[in-house]
Amino acid sequence: MLNIALFGPPGAGKGTQSEFLINKYKLFYISTGDILRKEIQEESKLGLEAKNIIEKGGLASDEIIVQIIEKTIKDNPEANGFLFDGFPRTKIQAYILSGLMIKLNTTLNRLISIEVPEEVSTKRLMERGKTSGRSDDNEDVIRNRLREYNKKTLPVLDFYKDKNVLSIVDGTQTIEQVTADLTNIIEEELNKNLLNIVMFGYPGSGRGTQAKALAKKYGLEYIAAGNMLEEEIKKGTEIGKEIKELYDNGQLVPDEIVVPLIENKIENSKQAKGFIFKGFPRTLVQSYILEGILKKHGLSITKMYELEVSPFELVKRLEYRRKQQYAKSYDSSTAKILYRLEQHENTTVKVIKRYRKTHDVVKINGMDTIENVFAKITEDIETGAKNLR
Ligand code: AP5
Ligand code: MG
Fold it and tell me: How many domains does the chain have?
């Protein structure tokens, strides 16, 4: 998801720019001003409540706004993302927006403030007033709107200042120049770690093979807990020795060892276009940890896949690998292979179930050839990405 809020005084050009952005990025447009005007026109209960305030240039109550926003978001669960115009407009609304984003398992990517001085706003709105039919486009009301903006809306910027989501654009430029600035900001956002994939599946389902190929294709950092642990074993570090012993007994490595390794990797992969996790999260605790780590870095999971392969095929594949040169240290005997399959069944399946409640965990039939499975996953990824661009 890509969520953008356009911020700025009346007449900054929020509405003008929105038209272009919603077409280009296929975002769902939420203009609280437009919605309120429609409610007023329809003489709905909400509209009647807000009418007087708006006509005087004041701000509608946060209670009214939260109802509007919540309803609009709920009615559009398929949206690729939202473009907010004229919201959040008070500090309370900024808190409300954070809460709604958490509920949707997403974040506000950017709040873009389009800055213009009061004289410019006033001049533009007076001009617009000649044809807009908006009852608030007259000198007295414009003055009030600006006063409200300075008093209640500008402080919203404090809320975002430290969160690394605020961008500023000079709104006195031509419409085209402002559009170009906005597009640059959004493109940069899209190129950030936007694709964070978790790859689920039983041992032997092809998770590693697919995850590595996806990492290569999309410039993602491949984060495989197992590989990192093996590296430690190979390096013969103290941690490595500890891990080896656990492995030899077919035990899970404790989170105190796994988590710092993963966090380190995320911190040191700022260039990546995203991350692909394999073999992590493996337990419910790890699923909470992953959310915590991602949140800390302003990231969220964008895609989850579960490769489905029949138990017989899993055993066949793992037994075959066991006898090869490239056999993994953790599949050195049939007993160990079965133990790993069982552990997945007993612990990781619960994690997938939990995610099913909050995310769309896409099932992929893994019984096909490596190439065909890869094609199915990339097709799914690209439908989402295409919708955004
Ligand atoms: P709202 O509809 O949001 O109005 P506003 O914030 O006052 O902003 P405008 O729509 O007037 O300006 P805009 O930035 O969209 O500029 P535009 O693109 O049209 O809200 C209306 C009322 O509803 C509020 O006063 C409040 O009462 C209530 N309300 C709404 N949301 C609320 C909330 N969250 N909480 C509480 N109350 C809420 O451009 C203006 C003109 O300039 C146009 O004619 C355009 O062609 C021109 N123009 C644009 N860009 C340029 C440019 N670069 N160069 C030259 N001309 C330009
Ligand atoms: Mg507008």
Answer: 2
Q: Domain span at residue 340? A: 195-388
Asked whether residue 386 carries a pLDDT value surpassing 60, the answer given is no
Q: Do 184 and 287 share a domain, yes or no?
A: no
Asked whether residue 289 falls in the same domain as residue 258, the answer is: yes
How many A from CA of 31 to the centre of ligand 2?
7
Q: Are 352 and 231 in a shared domain?
A: yes
Final residue belonging to a domain, choices 154, 175, 191: 191
Mutate to test the pocket of ligand 1, among 59, 112, 147 (most ligand atoms within 8 A of CB): 59
CATH number at residue 92: 3.40.50.300
212 shares a domain with 182:
no
Phi first, then psi: what are they for 105, rounded to 5°?
60, 35
| Residue 4 CB–ligand 1 contact under 6 Å | no
Same-domain check for residues 153 and 228:
no
Distances (CA, A) of 80 to 4, 228, 378: 11, 34, 18
Cα 126 to averaged position of ligand 2 atoms, centre (Å): 14
Residues 159 and 289 in one domain: no
User: Domain boundary residue among 191, 208, 223?
Assistant: 191
Q: How far apart are CA 120 and CA 142, in angstroms?
A: 12
33 lines ligand 1 (CB under 6 A): yes
For ligand 1, atom 43, name the residue with the nearest CA: 128
Residue (of 328, 333, 342) closest to 252 by Cα position: 342
| pLDDT 10s digits, 115-174 | 999 999 999 999 999 999 999 999 999 999 999 999 999 999 999 988 889 999 999 999
- Res. 247 pLDDT band, cuts 50 70 90: confident
Tally Cβ neighbours within 10 Å of residue 289. Answer: 18
* 294/374 same-domain check: yes
